[in-house]
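## Example record

The block below lists the input lines for one assembly entry, exactly as stored, with component labels intact.
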Amino acid sequence: MKRLFGVFVNGLIVENPLFVIMIGLCSAMAVTTTVANGIGMGVALTFVLVMSELIISLFRNLIPESIRMPIFLIVIAAFTTIMDLEMKAYFPALSKSMGVFIPLVVVNCIVMGRVEAFSSKQPVGDAVADGLGMGIGYTWVLLALAVVRELLGNGTLLGFQIMPSSFEPMIFFILPPGGFLVFALWMAASNDLRRKLLAGRKPAPTQDSCCTLPDNSSAEKA
Amino acid sequence: MKRWQMIKLGLILAMYTIVGCVGLAVVYNSTSKIIAQRQEADLQAGLHEVFPKATGFTPTDKVKSANPKVIFDAVYTANGPSGALGIAVKVQGASYGGLTTLIVGVSTDGTITGVKVLENKDTPGLGANAANPTYYVDKATRTTFAGQFAGKKLTDPFVVKKDVIAVTSATITSRSITNLVQIVGKAASDALGIGGSSQGPQAVLPSADTVRTSSKPATSSVPGVSILETLVGTKAGAIVGASAKAKATSYDGDVTVLVGVSTDGTILGVQILECTDSLGSSILVPEFAQQFVGKKVDAALKIGSGITAVTGATRSSNGATQLVKATADALVKALAGGGL
Amino acid sequence: MSDLIKIFVAAFLINNIILMRFIALCSYIGMTSDVGQSVGMGLAVTFVTVMASAVTWPIYYWILKPNGLEFLEILVFIVVIAALVQLVEFYLRKSVPTLYHAMGIYLPLITTNCAILAVTFDQITSNYNFVQSIVFAVAVSLGYLLAMLLLAGVRQRLKNSPIPSFMLDTPILYLTTSIIAVAFMGFAGLIK
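Predicted structure tokens for the full assembly:
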């Protein structure tokens, strides 16, 4: 039980997909113009992630090594479609406002990365704990982004007016440049905190296969 | 051996695919009904929003879109306790970030009863505010962008930043939606047979008491201009002028105009009947056509000299002006030739 | 014709896939530490996007839609694109080794590049016909290439710039991107 909890917590902070592994960023910045969208996207991704990890971990001995990639793709695509259809049926407004980013969950590096690196080798319990941890780790970062952007860019939170009526919304924050800026600042804060916590101990850089070439290990560190 | 291995892998892959597809089909079947119901409920709610007093809506096909880029998805007659209240149209057309869908209601007395934005893919925080029920273009009266159309007369110019308040920093979205509302208004008013008195050949030949079809149609020597209909206006039996309906290609669509010319070569009236250019329908404002009235046909009728283009539709304005000039020239020639 | 130009300008600059739509950010950060690499990746994406569009459009309109199978869109598109990338890689390695060395090494990264999938979905939701789809695909991927090149250029300078320690590595890249994106917002007025 303690081990499962460790796996779960891992995704929240230590290996946070957005701040630490830095994958799955597209949707993180695109949908966080409102808190509601952020929650919706977070739940959607967590669903696809947990279900895909569960199924693949369950069938991990029945997936031949040489064709594992296409099988992963099919499983992930199937759960993405299910989530897409359910969203359209039960949360049509949310589904419309997230647009193409719902189907794009299928190529979200978090899902593919975790399935490939973790659940295809681990027992079911660990896989589900990992999916939940990563999913919630993704969701809280989305919330952090969305709260800042909606509050400053629209003066509201979850649609409720928070700022006094004399506050003129800074539209910049809900526009694309604002998204990049808020993310940059949050990430700087998170990096700074991590540097202090680790106090000189450098964590092993996490390689992800979907964004960088294997031999291109952040050449700019120097 | 190797081939056997390949077949085995293929079969495994096929099995996963089949299981996946069957699972999706099951989910699709259960959700598609809910999605359809929800869309229907949205549509009904939208219809009732633009016609709150209606007791029911019956589908009709008597309103057609004149512009191929503007699709009328569904058209309904709004029924009241005592006869039809007007027409509601679900319309789809291009906006800044993709297609946008509206419901527009037009009452039998020639006013817009309401506009509801069903779908809009424009920039969040900017264009998307057109569909936001808590974004007010007029904070004092708490009027939303779509809300400001309610009660608007179809004879209004429908020009953003003049009689339509734009969404801040989203002029393109504001224009596209205004444009769609106006197109629906025009199509619906044609179908309802309202606003007819200011339309038609009589209006461009105000000095005539009777208007009849010409026995000799006018022809234009300008390539690309086709004269669709020639009419002659008479007063007490004597010819006082002639009018023609003409069509030509403009920026990326067609423009159709109605021009009336007196026997002394003065333009009596001009109406821009239709313009299928993208965003070109803003030249349908009466003010644009009005500029031609009273001008001599042989004067330089050009954008920049005597004629001012409609902002945001310079190319369409130019196309329409050239067509008016060509049609007027043709009419003067026909009048001089006699035998009408 | 003016229709196609509008689609091109809108997809290339106004709705730039990276700077305005946040799509394909991983490769945008991961592959721009070197100008040559960013160009290679950009060209590989252009090539595959156009090919993928040419394949998925007929599949959707001739197979999925007539049979009421639109709900398989995500699954079919991703599998088709993955298979296509494999085929292209295989073909290039065997037949055009020079081209393979220039851009083939990026191909494995492309299956999970969201830009390509996003383009194919957009073509369907925007009701584009085949020609419009191809123009859109070319424009989006050139926009991708342009954004990659811009960041790669700036990164050359960043290497020797004094950067506050808390902004080091990725944060400064997103800050730069934010400023580039502000500039790109100015293109919005290009189309009335």
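Chain C touches chain B at residues 2-3, 6, 15, 71-72, 75, 79, 125-127, 188, 191-192 (CB under 8 Å). DSSP finds nine helices and no strands in chain C.
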